[in-house]
Amino acid sequence: MRDAYHEELDSIGEGLVEMARLVGSAIGRATTAILDSDLKLAESVIAGDERVDELQHELEARAIALLARQQPVATDLRIVVTSLRMSADLERSGDLAQHVAKLARLRFPERAIPHDLHATILEMGQLAQRLMAKAAEVIITKDVDLALQLEQDDDAMDLLHRTLFQHLLDDRWKHGIETAVDVTLLGRYYERFADHAVSVANRVVYLVTGEHADEIQAAPQVEGA
């Protein structure tokens, strides 16, 4: 019975990893779709979000069944509850990738992004994908140090987001209001995607240590430790 129980716990973790990999791929493909005005690729990302939703529902059902049957306590209870919260982060990440793809579809056959912002949007998309890949690795390895690094990596996304706004506020902006709205939305989608990746990693920190990531980072470092 206990072996089956721990296999079920493991399967929940495997589901989270699959969700993280799917949404990481989705944000990368959505970025290509928005930059290349690729309608077929955009439609693929939009349709693919259904699988992420299915995985979340399956994971929730397994977790709730586990709570009802086994009534886990202490560490095992923390695993189940934290996994449910991570699945919500990952589902929202999938929605954000879908939003990027939907914007590409909305503006097709035109390109939603002005050429002078292509490099910034590409970098944001690549960074978002790397952050989620790292979050997936954290789920697998339970590496607290790696998890804490994501907060620092997210600073780069914040910097890129500010770069977008600098373009929008520049007196030389010549791409109109509609494009300004599109760029503003995209910046927000990528920023929130990165935040969810960080949130997943932070939840793993709590799962392993019982402490929140900000508490660990704020704790004084002991020399020679």
UniProtKB/TrEMBL annotation:
Q: What is stated as this protein's family in its record?
A: Belongs to the PhoU family.
Q: Which residues form a coiled coil?
A: none
**Entry protein name:** Phosphate-specific transport system accessory protein PhoU
Protein's cellular compartments? Cytoplasm
The UniProt entry, under InterPro entries, shows: PhoU, PhoU-like_sf, PhoU_dom
Q: Does the keyword Cytoplasm apply?
A: yes
Ordered alphabetically, the record's keywords are: Cytoplasm, Phosphate transport, Transport
- PhoU domain location: 16-103, 121-204
A GO CC annotation given for this chain? cytoplasm
- PANTHER family with a match to the protein in the record: PHOSPHATE-SPECIFIC TRANSPORT SYSTEM ACCESSORY PROTEIN PHOU
Question: What species is this protein from?
Answer: Streptomyces fructofermentans
State how it assembles. Answer: Homodimer.
A biological process (GO) of this protein is: negative regulation of phosphate metabolic process
What is this protein's function? Plays a role in the regulation of phosphate uptake.
